Each structure stands twice: as C-alpha cells, then as structure tokens.
UniProtKB/TrEMBL annotation:
<dbReference type="InterPro" id="IPR005835">
    <property type="entry name" value="NTP_transferase_dom"/>
</dbReference>
<comment type="similarity">
    <text>Belongs to the bacterial/plant glucose-1-phosphate adenylyltransferase family.</text>
</comment>
<feature type="binding site">
    <location>
        <position position="192"/>
    </location>
    <ligand>
        <name>alpha-D-glucose 1-phosphate</name>
    </ligand>
</feature>
<keyword id="KW-0119">Carbohydrate metabolism</keyword>
<keyword id="KW-0548">Nucleotidyltransferase</keyword>
<feature type="site" description="Could play a key role in the communication between the regulatory and the substrate sites">
    <location>
        <position position="93"/>
    </location>
</feature>
<keyword id="KW-0808">Transferase</keyword>
<dbReference type="InterPro" id="IPR011831">
    <property type="entry name" value="ADP-Glc_PPase"/>
</dbReference>
<comment type="pathway">
    <text>Glycan biosynthesis; glycogen biosynthesis.</text>
</comment>
<keyword id="KW-0067">ATP-binding</keyword>
<dbReference type="InterPro" id="IPR029044">
    <property type="entry name" value="Nucleotide-diphossugar_trans"/>
</dbReference>
<feature type="domain" description="Glucose-1-phosphate adenylyltransferase/Bifunctional protein GlmU-like C-terminal hexapeptide">
    <location>
        <begin position="294"/>
        <end position="397"/>
    </location>
</feature>
<feature type="domain" description="Nucleotidyl transferase">
    <location>
        <begin position="3"/>
        <end position="271"/>
    </location>
</feature>
<keyword id="KW-0547">Nucleotide-binding</keyword>
<keyword id="KW-0320">Glycogen biosynthesis</keyword>
<feature type="binding site">
    <location>
        <begin position="174"/>
        <end position="175"/>
    </location>
    <ligand>
        <name>alpha-D-glucose 1-phosphate</name>
    </ligand>
</feature>
<dbReference type="Pfam" id="PF24894">
    <property type="entry name" value="Hexapep_GlmU"/>
</dbReference>
Amino acid sequence: MAYVLAGGRGSRLFEMTDTRAKPAVYFGGKSRIIDFALSNAINSGIRRIGVATQYKAHSLIRHLQRGWNFLRPERNESFDILPASQRISEFQWYEGTADAVFQNIDIIQSYGPEYMVILAGDHIYKMDYELMLQQHVDTGADVTVACMEVPKAEAVGFGVMHVDATDRIIDFVEKPADPPTLPGDPDRSLASLGIYVFRTALLFEQLRRDADTAGSSRDFGKDLIPWLVEHGHAQAHRFSSSCVRSPEEPRAYWRDVGTVDAYWEANIDLTDVVPQLDLYDRSWPLWTYSEITPPAKFVHDLDGRRGSAVSSLVAGDCIVSGSTVHRSLLSTGVRAHSYSSIDESVILPMTRIGRNARLTRCVVDAGVTIPDGLVVGEDPLLDGHRFRRTDRGICLITQPMIDRLGA
C-alpha cells in the first residue's frame, strides 16, 4: 500500500497556499503536485493507495475524487482519502507525519498489506517504487529510506544520512549545520527524500511505540527513522537506481517546489526544447484529472496584434487573442487579450490577462483578472510594493493583490 502524506501547507509558497494545501498547487499546465507521487505508485504497480489530508484540503480532496476514483475494490484495488477527523481523540488532529499514519492503522489493517510505502505528496519526480521495495526485501532492513546525492552545502536543508560502505544508515540528522558526507567523497551528502518502505507489522509496532513516547513530535524524520537507525537496521536507497528517465532526460530529476522561486523555475524549465523533466513519456504517464476542454486557440494575425506562443506550454481551453506569449506556461482556461505580452511567466487556470498588459517573470494565481495595461516585471520597487516579489525578481500575483490596486 502506498500512503501519501498530503496535509502540509507549504508556507514558503505564501499566498499560493492561502486557500489550498501545497500538494494541491497546480503544476505543468493541467496537473497538481500530488499527481507525481500518485502516478509513481500506479505506474509502479501499487493499486492500494491512501492519502492523508489536513490543511485546507477541499480543493485537494475534490481533485482526488475527480481524477483518482478509477481504482476498483472488486479488483483488490482501493483509494482512500483520509482527512484528519479526530478518530483517536475528539481534540486531536494529525500531530505529525507518523501520527497521520498511526491514526488510520485500523483502516490500513482492513486491507492487510504486507509492505507500506510512505510518500510525501509535494515533490516533482518520477520513480519506480517497485525497485525500492525489492531492495528492502533483499536487505531485510527494518526501514529503507530513499535518498539523493546533493552537494554538502545544499544538504543543510534536508534530513541527511551518514552511511557505511554498504549504504546501511549509521546516523540520521535533520537539517544539520555540518552535514555528514559520503564515504570517500567529502563534498557530497545523502539527503532524505521523505520516501520510506516498511514491513507493515513492524511499522505499526513502531508507530505504537512512538505514540507512547512522551515528548515525541510524532514525525518520521525526527523520531521514527532516527530510532530505527540506532536500534534497528535502516538502509539507504539511492534515487539514481530507481529514477525513471526517458531517453530525452539526461539525469535523475527530483524537485522540491516549496518556494516561489523553485516553483517558477520548475515550471519554466518545462518550456526548454529538451526539458530535464519529460512530461511526454508515454511509458511512465502522469495521471491526473483530465478535464473535458476545447483545444487551445490563437486568433488575430495583424502586426502588433498577433496571437502567438513561442517556447511555451499552452493547455486546453486557452485563447491567445492578439497576445504574445514567450517561454511561459498557460494553464487550462487562460484568456490572453489583445496587445498583451507574457514572458517567462507561469499563469494558473482561469486567469484573464487584460489588453495591453505586460507580465514578465511572474506567477499568477488561479482565477486572477489582470487589469488592462498592468505592467509587472519592469520596475522592481513598484513590483515589490504591489505584489510579493522574491529576491530573484519573481512576482507572485493573487486576486486580493489586484483588488488592493484599486482601493
């Protein structure tokens, strides 16, 4: 059974997660972030899936109900949405990632899975979990932790594993100031990806032990994994050995799109001629809720008023009407009106771009109406006053920000 932890807000995305959880944030024109973990599970042959939700979960639950309701109980398949529902105590929500599994032990037990794959629902990657499961069985580990090699300087933001020559984990530290490095390589570290494999019986045993431990934060990375490293057998699994790559993808791809800059960059990367992440790989499809939409449309063919898009992704139900789109991503249902220009920007669904507007290096939230003539991305001081502008110069625009312009 795959169990996806999808209850986090993702506070570093600021206003993008004011009304939705981070796993429900749109990505790639027509998908949501959570679709990557779920698609990996389906493509890996896992047909029992649970998703634990908590923070502002309505749009996430709606997406899951619409796009992931094809699993059938009569085929020994299941898909459970598991909101925090005070099932243990009427005063208790999910207190941590481990608690989000602990509170649903009875539901998991009803299916009788022999192994559990615990997944984070907020990362962008393609991975065959079957290979990680096989390693877990072969090594006889109590827990197997997926990890990725990163430069030591970047490892300070991760949970970091210190391993021996056989990749057995001998120490696990969360966001260390001086990360342990790989044997024989003082410049690189192993960072946890928040993906764990357990034998179900052992997982339940550890969850119950942790629930009875005073002072525990009920978290896999802070409590359960370090305990198993010290008292059991914890094994590292290299992401490079199970990362799914098409012939077009030059290297293993994994992204945490937890900041506005990272989110913008990962989306804009998709517009490259040969992107690092191949969404067109039919051997490992990205499943999602497929809306029924008309094709994208480009109209007007006059000098200065030509509907066009270059080096861009344009989803269904978009109309580019006398507007110029360059190296940008237009999600479902965007309307770009005459004489406007969109450059290096990520436009989320059902947005309206007014006439003569100019948007450069922006992320525009879903459902926003950009006024006629609005210019963003050319005056840093003005942008910083009106919108949320990052240190890299990316402007996040939401409807309340637009509404304040006319106040």
